[in-house]
Design a protein that fits this description.
about 180 residues, mainly alpha, 434 Repressor (Amino-terminal Domain), Arc Repressor Mutant, subunit A, 2 domains, three-stranded antiparallel beta sheet, 8 helices, 3 strands, about 50% helix
């Protein structure tokens, strides 16, 4: 039987693992390449277990991995805006009072005129996804594209970040058309 602290700890380990995987993939590295680059310090099987949240990485190993990836240590950790409660029960209800960017809407509209100006490597995957939707729909108006909120959750999950964090980032670079606009 799990204790009250084991569920949030497992959920947090899973989120740390998602961040580790996202950063490794951004660097274009396979698990085997990390093992080789680290002179076998980070075995592929162990790193995979960290990424799946099956093992908890120590602070010192996290620091060494950050050095290997050439990123600040805090980038390997889940964002502070994520609440352990919704991670533990698997829901994505959002932060209390909707958070700074609000709750995830049913539909998200993008300003396609700004897509070429995106200089964020992590958001490039999202831009490629949006471009593929334009091609599939053969919707070449070139101004806006609307996708479902569930698709945003999926993209955020693939990127290893929270969907509301993704919305905030899109708002910051004015890629999302907000309802107020």
């Amino acid at each position: 039987m799990e204790t009250d602290t084991e569920v949030p700890a497992r959920a947090y380990a899973y989120r740390v693992g998602q961040r580790l995987r996202a950063i490794r993939r951004q660097k274009g590295l396979s698990l085997q390449e990390v093992e080789s680059t680290s002179s076998q310090e980070f075995k592929a099987s162990v790193l995979g277990a960290y990424e799946r949240g099956e093992r908890i990485i120590s602070v010192s190993r996290l620091q060494r991995l950050a050095g290997l990836y050439n990123v600040p240590v805090d980038q390997l950790l889940p964002r502070a805006t994520e609440r352990l409660g919704h991670l533990a029960n698997g829901s994505d209800d959002g932060p209390v009072n909707g958070g700074p960017c609000g709750a995830l809407p049913e539909k998200v509209t993008f300003d396609l005129t700004r897509i070429d100006a995106v200089a964020d490597a992590e958001l490039e995957m999202l831009c490629r996804y949006l471009t593929s939707i334009v091609m599939q729909r053969q919707d070449f108006n070139g101004r806006v594209l609307t996708i479902r909120g569930d698709d945003m959750r999926t993209m955020a999950g693939l990127m290893g970040i929270d969907a509301r964090d993704l919305l905030c980032r899109l708002d910051a670079i004015q890629l999302r058309v907000t309802p107020d606009a």
